[in-house]
Amino acid sequence: MSRLVVASIGPASSVQDGGRHGAQRYGLTVSGAMDRLSLAAANALVGNEPFAAAVEIGPFGAAFTARDGAVRVAISGAPRNADIAGNPVAMGASVTLKDGETLTLGFARGGAFTYLAIEGAIKGEPVFGSLAVNARAGLGSPYPRPLQAGDEFNVDGASGAPDLRIELPKPASGPIRVVLGPQDDEFDDANKALFLSSEWKVSATSDRMGYRLDGPPIKHLYGHNIVSDGTVNGSIQVPGNGSPIALMMDRGTSGGYPKIATVITADVGRLAQTSAGTAFRFKQVSMTEAQDEARKFAQLIRSLSDRLRSSDAVALNIEALSDANVAGQAVNAVDAWTWQVAAEP
Amino acid sequence: MAATLPPPRLLPSGDSAVTVEFSRTIDEDANQRVLALDKALAASPIDGITETVPTYRSLLVHYDPGKIGFDALGDKLLALASRPLPPATKARRWRIPVAYGGEHGIDLEDVAKALSTTPDDIVARHVGGDYKVAMIGFTPGWSYLSGLDKSLHMSRRQNPRLLTPAGTISIGGIQAGIQCLAAPSGWHLLGRTPVRTYQLHRNPTFLTEPGDRVTFFAIDHKTFAEQDRAAEAGEIIAEQVHA
Questions:
Q1: What is the pLDDT of residues A51-64, one digit of tens each?
Q2: Can you state the angle between helices B70-81 and B28-43, rounded to 10 degrees?
Q3: pTM for this predicted structure
Q4: How do B213-218 and B93-100 pair as beta strands?
Q5: Closest CA to B171 of B100, B116, B241
Q6: What residues in B contact A264, CB-CB < 8 Å?
């Protein structure tokens, strides 16, 4: 059996998968990958199920070394410089590490999370069907905490399948789409309009639990306390200070602030990849459009393996590598993050 | 009576969940209807629903929009929710030991001062309550209880603590709570229980369910230490009362 050893890794990196479902009624957080499409793409590239457990790498760099045999991995998500002994490795591509070789990833450029999937997937003891790390609850496997240098994954060893790269359809680059509610009636029309027309920036005090949004204060009609009710991924609650918080994968299952709107399923991962300090806007869509987009998003994820068998996939060569490493206007996203959100029941 | 409540409202919670809201306030009748709808859905599942989260006053229904759309699901939920409440079934009843005061209940003296009475009196009022698990949320096993004695209603702390211990028994606003894991909290800490409402490798993993009834009884700090060790080893410390 081969091993993939974490040679170095920054904070906010952990094993994540499709999340822990079925026990939200007991307060058990869903967790799971912040950017599900990138997780699914990385998994598809090494022949795994879309939501198999993989390493979610935060904005900082990381390095992984194969031991006791070859290991095939794939990376997708926030772009980074990646290399094996100085030879570039493409984003959205699989690559086979020979015994002793190290894959080195730089800081995220213009995004926050990159996924490293391992052929055969990460193995561990699932709880409610998931290996996802929820550090607060001490859940996750094989390590119930953020990853550290020295951690390792036992893997089956590389199958020898050819390495591939995948071109995903360009994600919508426009505003983050929301449907209003469930408590939009706690805000008057002027404040709803202010929320929908303003430019927002993800604050540095953001993490997997929630993204605080800097912008104009949103005022409540009746005060900022509601009797706690359920939350979903992408709920945008407005606490007393008027600065919205978009609830992300490690959110509490219930909350006591009015929720003005909810990010649509297809855009939650895009918001997750919006690095601190980057400006963006929201746009209201109808429930019909949101559900159409959710169905298309699910279909896109289901189709990833097929794409790899079609002409969308590019066998890796030097040209593909140099194309893939053109990062456009990517910026260094690292300095802006502090990863800390406190909360109370 | 429950019958006097207006019909519930459907509040969209994104494209994959809907909140069925029975009341905007904490209301025993509303909570009863929430739990009844939750039970009805468990008894006759609607294809596409992935999980439900009962709260004080609403039921959050997660669903797959690939299987059922908002309008079709909403119609079914409203139809179910408008049915008359089934006759009450006997709730499970738990007796939960609490070590009050001292290091385990660091706010007990301050609460007594604020309410112009003694710590013993606060304990007596807290122990005298007959509580219902209205909802579970925030962190695994965190049980929100209704039924707190009115004389103990008081606003939350000005400065929430960033970390309070596992097993904390506290009060906040008009609510009482059993907190399982260490967590931030703005509530007033009266004591600690050795009971784990959530313990990963124990069967059952979660002890309390929304709708369960709870009473507390006082134990000394030595008993707490003993029971805490036993609970850590997987024993269920809470006593289930078979009435």
A1: 999 999 999 999 99
A2: 120
A3: 0.91
A4: parallel
A5: B100
A6: 14-15
